[in-house]
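User: Quick sanity check before I run a bigger batch. Here is a single chain. Can you write out its predicted 3D structure?
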Amino acid sequence: MEAQAFIDLVAGSARQSFLTYHLFPSVTIAQAILESGWGKKVPVDPATGRSSYNLFGIKGAGVAGSVKIVSNEVEQGQVVPRTSEFKAYYNYQQSIDDHAQFLLKPAYKRVVTAATPYEAAQALSKAGYATDPEYATKLTRLIDTYNLTQYDQFTTEEPSFYPAWKLDLGKRALKEGLITSPEWLSKLDEPMPVWAVLAVALRLLDKQRQAP
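Assistant: Done. Predicted structure follows.
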């Protein structure tokens, strides 16, 4: 598959996922390219040839079950066959959404609050997402080479889950520690329970007490 053909295949899903999870589509696309080898490393059921649509090599069982792959691993100098179970999905949208949900963990909040895709790439690396020390550099190179930032642009006519001002408020609150998890960014229109209001108020008090 040609590079642009693969990008076209996943770009729409990455943009759709942004409306809920607020992760830069350019970074999501670059991760899909890097981790799936342009789609060539997506696990496929060896018996049926069924694709798992798993772009990020996430192990376990997904909405469409799993795909088991046998690979040879070297242990104590011996080549040993090992079976790995990878999540299976019905389409790439489900794979991208599942990956986005994984990044809603507090450890990755700087990925969500990043002002640019380049900051997000660095935040992924600093949070320990990948063991490759060049991971952020590789993402940045892909973003620049294929002009992936064009997929971060949304026109005023396109649907948006939240207006920009509301999302900016949520990201600032996350960065300032008033909310502790990126998951709150998908709940900005929901009424806050009393305990959540109290938690925010107490964090404000804590910040004031710590101020010089």
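The radius of gyration is 20 Å.

User: Great, the batch can go ahead then.
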